[in-house]
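Format notes (please read before filing issues)

Several people have asked whether sequences and structure tokens are stored in separate files. They are not. Every record keeps both together, in the order shown below: the sequence lines, then the token lines. Line labels are part of the format and must not be stripped during preprocessing.
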Amino acid sequence: MEELPSLPPVEPFRIKVVEAIHLLPAPEREAALRRAHFNLFNLSSDEIYIDLLTDSGTSAMSDRQWSALMLGDESYAGSRNFRRFEETVRGITGFPYLLPTHQGRAAENIFFSSMVKRGDIIPNNMHFDTTQEHVRRNGAVPMNAVVREAYDSRSEHPFKGNMDTALLEKILRDQKGKVPLVMMTLTNNTGGGQPASLENLREVSALCRKVGVPLYLDMCRWAENAYFIRTREAGMSEHSIREIGKEIFALADGATMSAKKDGLVNIGGFVATRDEKLFERMRELLIVYEGFPTYGGLARRDLEAMAVGLEEAMGLDYLEHRTAQVAYLGHLLETADIPFMHPPGGHGIYLDAGAFLPHLSRENLPGQTLSIELYREGGVRTVEIGGVMFGEGKDLRERLELVRLAIPRRVYTASHLSYVAETVKRVWERRASLRGCRMVSATESLRHFTAHFEPL
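Then the structure lines:
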């Protein structure tokens, strides 16, 4: 295992505004769990002490972003904030055509609705929940093609978000005419926030261009991925994040983005492309579902804040601290031999729930059980990424059973992370006593958001 920092990283910012948080007494936490039907999505925010449910839209905005909100030009069409946003995205990605959306899943909606038809096959390194659902709702089949190392939580492979290029080549050959696009998710959220290498992206791009299939990126954590390329890939240490980004985006035909991650905003996203005809089809759908193409479901001031956040997310000081926070939490857990996805990824620690609770079968939902216990023990909210979120699946490539501790950007300090680690350790010490849970009701799709559970 690569050496993890034993000292907490120093925050590259000063705190100017604070929000009070409160740890409910244990009986009240138990009552909250029961009211929520043991689904942490159903808890109220004031029932949470440390909220690691997601890093999406939970960032703290900077003083520059708050200032940008005051520059909102709320014109329905042709807002100057859109021009600033457009110039920023084009400057980072080089994609000439773009449409703002209220968040990433809205971008996925108009993108996949415009690109995919029934019977298509959509390869990805690993689809995340809403990406997979949008593929399915358009009648297509999502297919994960990540490298085998991604399924081994103990492997120290530095780029476990890489595409298995031999498998991708086979898919493109065997499913000729059925693959309208290939997608790469940066970083690989389903598999631990793990990055893809620039070398792998070049290989994937070359395969796609060889057969005339466009390559699109889910770029919501692209800056974190670029930072790992800079620190882990040979010959890249002197390149800036912007320079690495230009190389990444030059290999692709477009991207979707939830800017609630590496845009450092609480709401917002976009879809971008080099294909003018695709842009025109998507623009028509955007007007129907989101709004006019120069605001896309957002207040124009949000476009201004997003433009600032996209620039700030490329800062080395910020990225060094961001990834060091995750690694530091990993170090605290490593000292207790607690199993998690190695090496630490870009936006959170992913506990290996299957190894944490080896006495529970998948039918006993070890990931959901562990998430429930972390809240019960210390008021820490996390999320299961495994059998509940993605279903059982017969393919060994879908057998990860993880609990994600997603760290919001610029929100929590080292002492918060120490508290989280101690909470995990206390559950670890009594792990043999955990008996699992079962799902008592669920929707057909995206069931993890609303399902009800009960303890065994």
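For reference, the curators noted about this record: The mean pLDDT is 94. The CA atoms of residues 110 and 286 lie 7 Å apart.
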